[in-house]
Amino acid sequence: MSLIRNAFRRLHYPVDIIAQCVRWYLAYALSLRNIEEMMAERGATVDHSTLHRWIIRLVPLLDRAFRRHKRAVGRRWPMDETYIKVKGEWKYLYRAVDSTGQTIDFLLTSRRDAVAALRFFRKAIRNHGEPKVVTIDKSGANTAALATLNADKPEKEAITIRQSKYLNNLIEQDHRNIKRRIRSMMGFKSLRRAQTVLAGIELIHMILKGQCHHPAGDGLSSAEQFDLLAV
């Protein structure tokens, strides 16, 4: 049974329409009302609040499904944080990629400090194993978090910390794709909703990078790979 059928007790729309609307919102610079109008032109009446409910309900399930098929990543991680506005206040999106640009992980937090950075690294390590090298800027918080991870390790097993703002261009460039999608939105009303939508945007971004290794996904477009997870 499809992920969408499992997500809702009753389905008032075909699963392919639900999947398409969710993918459009996450992948393109469209508002919920834009998608509502586009579906109306195609003869389907879908309220923007219904679209929002679909996204909030489905993205966590899609994220879990994707992670089961995510390609292995490298052990050299450029890491950085960027700013996201939630309810009029700046929050911090921690992100890392490997040396080839594949997304490692991400975490939205209210604060930018050593505790938040440590939460991010522990999440990334839990999902992907420990890195060999982490490249960061001159942030003292990120350095402190890595020092905590290294504290009980023998020197030969410690994570190597490289601090250089110029070596971090790869992750800074990768931020742009996420920020470009967020720019067209009306703004996030809560941290929890922001975390959910950002996870969906990151999921689409990873599929576009070719990070989905589904056994039935060879030769499929990014849209078809998304549908394979959802439908």
Characteristic terms for this protein:
231 residues; 9 helices; Nucleotidyltransferase, domain 5; 5-stranded mixed sheet; alpha/beta
Q: What would you note in describing this structure?
A:
It is a single chain. With 231 residues, the protein is α/β, with parallel strands linked by helices. Helices cover 50% and strands 15% of the residues. It has nine helices and five strands. Helix 2 (15-27) crosses helix 9 (222-230), helix 3 crosses helix 4 (48-67) and helix 5 crosses helix 6. 30% of the residues are buried.
Annotate the secondary structure layout.
Layout: H1 3-7, H2 15-27, H3 32-41, H4 48-67, E1 76-86, E2 89-97, E3 103-109, H5 114-128, E4 133-136, H6 140-150, E5 160-163, H7 169-183, H8 191-208, H9 222-230
Parallel strand pairs: 1-4, 4-5
Antiparallel strand pairs: 1-2, 2-3
* Helical content (DSSP H or I, runs of 4+): 40-55%
> What is the string of SSEs from the N terminus onward?
HHHHEEEHEHEHHH
The quaternary structure here is single chain
Terminal CA distance reads 8 Å
CATH-wise, what's the superfamily of the largest domain?
Ribonuclease H-like superfamily/Ribonuclease H
CATH topology of the largest domain: Nucleotidyltransferase, domain 5
As for the number of domains, it is 2
Task: Give the helix/strand class.
Answer: alpha/beta
Q: Strand tally, please?
A: 5
CATH C-level name of the largest domain:
Alpha Beta
- Strand ordering within the main sheet: 3-2-1-4-5
Write the CATH architecture name of the largest domain: 2-Layer Sandwich
**Proportion in β-strands:** 15-25%
Shape: globular
The biggest sheet, with number of strands, parallel, antiparallel or mixed sense and barrel status, is: 5 strands, mixed
Q: Tally the helices: what do you get? A: 9
Uncertain regions spanning at least 5 consecutive residues: none
Radius of gyration, CA atoms, in whole angstroms:
19 Å
| Mean pLDDT across residues | 93
